[in-house]
Design a protein that fits this description.
The protein has about 240 residues and is mostly helical. It is about 55% helix and about 0% strand.
């Protein structure tokens, strides 16, 4: 309800495309994705628990103590970079490894972007990408407060960058992910715009790895060329159907 109260007025007052989320195809499927978000979180937590058990030998207590001795804002800044670099590569692999793309294609199948479209996620896809970012942060041993603030920021920003708003932020768009930046990640306008802007937090990470793309306009076309069922159950099953 809080997210509804924030983003519906924003998209009404500052729309990129003049429509509300319930006026577009795919609304009901995305609403079910949104409501079932707890399932995705449980899958992610399970994967983290298993991996922490297997990879616990990577924990370096002296390094953890050195990080904990830093000021909270320095910890938070480092945690953001560590998370985003890990999630960047998880996201990039989701586009380049065929079986990972079959999961990730569910998220990209929406032909319209708004705050609710951010929830169109296959649980296994989100678990993989989130774990790539969260696991290094956990193993480095940041405080619970730093970890919690990071997860909160990631969750809110993930919704905001999909929003149907026309805002531009000038030079800040190179430092913090915005709708203009992330909309180009969902663009379907040909090879020039494919596989760009994988970062969910820090666009300059894309610049470092050569995948930054940020023209002055917004995309005119979104989505994928592959078939995707219109309903929630069909979207979850689609990655496992034989071609």
């Amino acid at each position: 309800m809080v997210l509804f109260a924030i983003f519906v007025p924003l998209e009404s007052l500052f729309p990129l495309v003049r429509r509300q989320c319930w006026q577009r195809p795919g609304f009901w499927a995305d609403a079910v994705h949104f409501i079932s978000g707890a399932v995705r979180k449980l899958v992610t937590i399970f994967a983290l628990v298993v991996l922490v058990y297997w990879l616990g030998f990577l924990i370096d207590p002296p390094l953890q103590r050195a990080l904990l001795a830093l000021r909270w804002w320095v910890q938070f800044a480092i945690a953001n970079v560590v998370f985003d670099v890990g999630a960047y590569w998880g996201h990039r692999w989701a586009h380049s490894v065929p079986w990972l793309w079959r999961l990730h294609a569910v998220h990209h199948s929406s032909a319209s972007l708004d705050w609710l479209a951010a929830s169109r996620l296959h649980p296994l896809d989100q678990a993989f990408i989130r774990v790539c970012g969260i696991l290094p942060v956990y193993l480095l041993g940041f405080t619970k407060e730093t970890f919690g603030a990071l997860i909160g920021l990631v969750a809110v920003l993930a919704i905001f960058i999909h929003a149907n708003v026309r805002w531009r932020f000038g030079w800040l768009e190179w430092l913090v992910a915005t709708p203009a930046f992330h909309h180009w990640h969902h663009a379907n306008e040909g090879p020039e715009t494919a596989n760009k802007n994988f970062s969910g937090l820090l666009p300059w990470v894309d610049w470092v790895f050569g995948t930054m793309y940020l023209p002055k306009r917004f995309p005119e076309k979104y989505g994928i060329d592959e078939p995707m069922p219109a309903n929630y159950a069909g979207q979850l099953a689609q990655p496992f159907r034989s071609k």
